[in-house]
Amino acid sequence: GEVAQRYVVLHEFQSACRTELDLAVGEAVLVIADPDGGSQDANRWIEGVSERSGRRGWFPSAHVGRAAGDEAGPSQSAERRVVIHEFRGMAAGELDLTVGEVVVTCGSQDAP
To answer: How would you label 37-61 residue by residue, b for 16+ Cβ within 10 Å and e otherwise?
Structure first.
């Protein structure tokens, strides 16, 4: 399967709709879709997941650059997963998940 690639935000981006992702300078995002990946068009849109917030959305590729030292970053264990059961978050920080949606795991949280 396709492997998510880690990028760092170079320029802030404010989303205009709910399918877009807000970006803050310096944060890391995992790019999960780049439909025109062979293109050098800086205005192309790519889809990613914020490592900070866990939110998913589209943004202009010109706002991010490849992260240096991926192997040492928190995304080392990142994996793409497809949701097979719907889930509605009940507590702060829990995400709503829809069947068929792709999520990127950035590690696991073990119960105490």
So the answer is: eeeeeeeebbbbbbbeeeebbebeb
